[in-house]
Design brief:
Signal peptide: 1-22
Oligomer: single chain
Protein name: Type IX secretion system membrane protein PorP/SprF
Organism: Flagellimonas olearia
CATH class: Mainly Beta
Pfam families: PorP_SprF (PF11751)
Helix content: under 10%
Strand content: over 45%
Order of helices and strands: HEEEEEEEEEEEEEEEEE
Low-confidence stretches: 1-23, 185-190
CATH superfamily: monomeric porin ompg
Keywords: Signal
Number of strands: 17
CATH architecture: Beta Barrel
C-alpha cells in the first residue's frame, strides 16, 4: 500500500468520524489540568496565577496529521473575580483553525468548604480549509466549496464549577453558536455547521497516605446529534513530587500519563495514547501529548 492510499484511508476515517461521531473539538489527555479550555468558570479558581502550554500530535510521521497546540493563562483578580485567556490552534489535514477566548468568572461561598464559580467565555475563531487538497485524498466536494474562503466567527460560552478541597463538579458549553465548517457525507465533502459541545466532569481525591493521593476524574462529552463520549482517569500523586496514571475513553482509546514537579510551581507532563481501533498497516495510530504548567 503506497503513501497516497494510506493518506486516502486516513482522510476517509477522519472525515467519517467527524461526520458520524461529530467530535469536532480536540480531546486532551491532560484535561483535568487545563479545564479552562472547556469551562470558563475555572478562570482564576487557583490561588495563584497559572500559565500552561500543551501540544498534542496524532499519527506521528504522517504529513498533515491532526495536531493541536494550546496556551492557557488564568488568575484571580479582585475579591471574587477570575480572568483567563486561552489560545488553541488545531490542524487536521486540510483544516486549520485558531481559537482565542477570554474568560471571566465569579464565585460565591456556599459554606466554609465549598465555592461555586460561574463563568462566561467570549471567543473568536479563524477557520480555514484548503478544499483544493480534497483531490489529493480522493474526496469529492460540493459545488459550494469551489470558491471557499476562510471564516472568522465570534462565539460565546458559559459554565459552572463547584469546588471543594477534595472534589469538584463542572458543567459547561464553551461554544453556544454553530458556525460553518467542512463535513463529509457518502465520500463527499460539503459545507456544514459546527456542533454544540457540552461537558460534564468531576473528580475526587482519595487520601491513601501522608504523601500519596489517588486522583480520580471523569469527563462526559455530549455533541449535538452524535454518540456520547465518556473518559475516566485515575492518577497517583506522590506527595506533589510526581504523578502518573491512566485514562480510558470508552470504545476509543487508552492512555498513560506522567507529570513531574520540576521545581516549586513548575510541572512537565507527557501522555501516550493508543487507539482501540485497528491501525492502518505501516502507520502509527498513537498520540503523543506534552504538557507544561507554571504557577506564578
Amino acid at each position: 500500500m503506497n503513501i497516497f492510499h494510506k493518506l486516502y484511508l486516513l482522510m476517509t476515517v477522519l472525515l467519517f468520524s467527524v461526520g458520524i461521531n461529530g467530535q469536532q473539538d480536540p480531546n486532551y489527555t491532560f484535561y483535568r489540568y487545563n479545564m479552562n479550555i472547556y469551562n470558563p468558570a475555572f478562570a482564576g479558581s487557583s490561588e495563584a496565577a497559572e500559565f500552561s502550554l500543551g501540544i498534542r500530535s496524532q499519527w506521528a510521521g504522517v504529513e498533515g496529521a491532526p495536531e493541536s497546540q494550546s496556551a492557557i493563562f488564568g488568575m484571580p483578580v479582585g475579591r471574587k473575580l477570575g480572568l483567563g485567556v486561552s489560545v488553541l490552534n488545531d490542524r487536521t489535514f486540510i483544516e486549520q483553525q485558531t481559537w482565542v477566548a477570554v474568560d471571566v468568572s465569579y464565585y460565591i461561598d456556599l459554606d466554609e468548604e465549598h465555592k461555586l464559580y460561574f463563568g462566561i467565555k467570549g471567543s473568536a475563531n479563524s477557520y480555514d480549509a484548503n478544499t483544493d487538497g480534497l483531490i489529493t485524498y480522493g474526496m469529492g466536494q460540493d459545488g459550494t466549496l469551489l470558491n471557499y474562503e476562510s471564516r472568522f466567527t465570534p462565539n460565546v460560552g458559559a459554565g459552572a464549577y463547584l469546588k471543594h478541597n477534595r472534589y469538584f463538579v463542572s458543567l459547561s458549553v464553551p461554544k453556544l453558536l454553530t458556525p460553518d465548517r467542512l463535513q463529509e457525507r457518502n465520500g463527499n465533502a460539503y459545507l456544514g455547521a459546527d456542533r454544540m459541545h457540552a461537558y460534564l466532569s468531576g473528580g475526587y481525591s482519595f487520601i491513601l497516605g501522608k504523601t500519596l493521593d489517588l486522583k480520580t476524574a471523569g469527563m462526559f462529552r455530549y455533541v449535538d446529534a452524535s454518540p456520547m463520549s465518556l473518559e475516566l482517569t485515575a492518577i497517583l500523586d506522590f506527595g506533589e513530587r510526581f504523578e502518573f496514571g491512566a485514562s480510558y475513553r470508552f470504545d476509543e482509546s487508552v492512555s498513560g500519563l506522567f507529570l513531574f514537579n520540576i521545581s516549586q510551581g513548575f510541572n512537565l507532563g507527557y501522555a501516550y495514547e493508543t487507539s482501540l481501533q485497528s491501525a492502518i498497516e505501516g502507520i502509527d495510530n498513537s498520540t503523543h501529548e506534552l504538557f507544561m504548567r507554571l504557577s506564578l
